[in-house]
Amino acid sequence: MKLLAKNATGRGTGPARVTAWQVARRAKVSQSAVSRAFAGGAGVSSETRDRILAVATELGYQPNALARGLITQRSGIAGVVISDFGNPFLSAAVERLSKRLGRIGLQPLLIAVDTEDDVRAALSTLEQYRVDGCFVISPHMPQKLARRYHSVGTTVLMFNPQMTGLDASFVSVDNVAAGRAVADFLLDEGHVRLGYVHGPRGAGTDRDRYAGFVSRLEERSAARPAVGWGEYSYHGGARAMKALAAQSPRPTAVFCASDIMAMGAMDVARNALDLAVPEDLSIVGFDDAPPASWPSYDLTTIRQPMDAMIEAGIEILLDAGPDRTNKPTQRILDSELVLRSSTLTPSARS
Amino acid sequence: MKLLAKNATGRGTGPARVTAWQVARRAKVSQSAVSRAFAGGAGVSSETRDRILAVATELGYQPNALARGLITQRSGIAGVVISDFGNPFLSAAVERLSKRLGRIGLQPLLIAVDTEDDVRAALSTLEQYRVDGCFVISPHMPQKLARRYHSVGTTVLMFNPQMTGLDASFVSVDNVAAGRAVADFLLDEGHVRLGYVHGPRGAGTDRDRYAGFVSRLEERSAARPAVGWGEYSYHGGARAMKALAAQSPRPTAVFCASDIMAMGAMDVARNALDLAVPEDLSIVGFDDAPPASWPSYDLTTIRQPMDAMIEAGIEILLDAGPDRTNKPTQRILDSELVLRSSTLTPSARS
DNA sequence: TTGAAAGCGCTACCAT
DNA sequence: ATGGTAGCGCTTTCAA
Predict the structure, then answer these.
(1) Structural domain boundaries enclosing A83
(2) How many structural domains are present in chain A?
């Protein structure tokens, strides 16, 4: 009687879902046995386990991850908050991260955001799904939010946020050091009039890159760079380049805070401003996104060690597991200047 | 007594989660009332509802979406299976789709795949999470799988699959017609030796585009095109272009089955083969991905109406809801040839 | 309008 | 090794 009543309700969508109960009955075991068989097989003899699995495939049984998550307090879901798929570095990061998460049994719940409010809403949604952790790849993550979510129990791991004084977990490259390296490189190349293309106002990455760039210029007594604003987008970079080129004297080298902006800048320089790169104008990007190495751009850029960053991020997320210390973890990795033909190579000079 | 016992177990990760019970107790109502208050407020007086919501925010209560999904049989999750983020058209599609889903209360669970086996595994995972529907944006979706999943109750909606004889739901452009349009255009331009760059072997989109292209060439008694294989990737397109250029006589116009391949082809033509585009070589792409309109490419291409396709896809998914008919729905939209400067414009001739 | 009670499908802890 | 049982946190009848 009771067995028949189980899942006999006609409710639900479409063809009734197979449950562990039905598998159990068919295999003449208890429902607990089915659960154990699917939980790695500990506590079941291999014969019964095989029988159970056979029946399960026969019936097309798939364990309900929602029910499992409810009881185990682990959803198996990781949140990924991302802004700007148009940036090839970020979309590549999402792909790599997604695959990496899958390999450790975490499924990424993806939320695309634009504004700070979007991030807020996204984190709320992710909290409702009881995500086991959460990556935020967006310049819009407000500091307070980060701290709050950290204390509420969901580990929020930021990808390249503003580092200075941030009391939350993140993984980043040393943007300040990278900015300084670019300054040194361009000055060593003999450039005097420099330009800088900013990302969106308030983006921590941009702020740090700029700070490093300018501080090194000052240390070496170089003039402050002319600046443009490019929103971390192709068209923004193009617009900023036009503005910079209108200055006089025009900069002979421009450092863009991201590759996608550098690509826009380079295209507009060549096609609209009739400037040869690198002869008339050197361009340096940031990220080493896949298109940076395409022959038409072949962009000198700061390489962010994407895989290492993802690895570090995953590590932080996992370490922050069940018995978490509630102490934010931060990892700052080294970046690397990759020389290509959008700048004069040092060997070509002298 | 019983109330105190509720959620008093110290288990779980981090700070104990706030449940509806705790909100209920604090607001001096039943737990059902809390549930109703969060379900739109039907069945609760506005006073009690306000009190409940106040207590909820005070306690930081967030309803558990897993539990809700378990009881309602609607997870609120939509699966998105995607291959190849390197393709700017596809990554843009994921972004748009993700935002569109969010607006109707569906959260996208993203799975990045490479092979057909990956797709199989992905669908299995998505089934465990009891997704309310699922988008597959991959050339690797096998027909049988599609049919099986459709009959099991999860609506699987394919984005641009192989259309011919497919007994499953999908949304697509008419790839055959598009291929024919490109053939007409290039022949009208006066080209005689044509080339075609394939996507991955077995991709339905590629097959249909090629079939349309060739059939129209035949109808107009033109020679069969020389072909290369480009895997729907930038570097693949570049390799294929090199191979095509080695033929003699060399094609004067090449149709690439995706924009990203066309970009690779164009770059290699200009930078390695020293061919001017469009003077020496015309190039036509497919998708109208964002970079296609960048000045350095300015690619003549077939525009896929992405937003309309997503809209149609969502519609199919929603229509296939609770009382689903189990009948696959298919929507084929029109595409459009966008003329840019990677081909000689008709007006420029004659 | 409200509260009590019955599960959704699973895991985990008991007994045996 | 196995089966019974108690929930995970919610929605949804059903009475009051």
Answers:
(1) 77-174+305-335
(2) 3
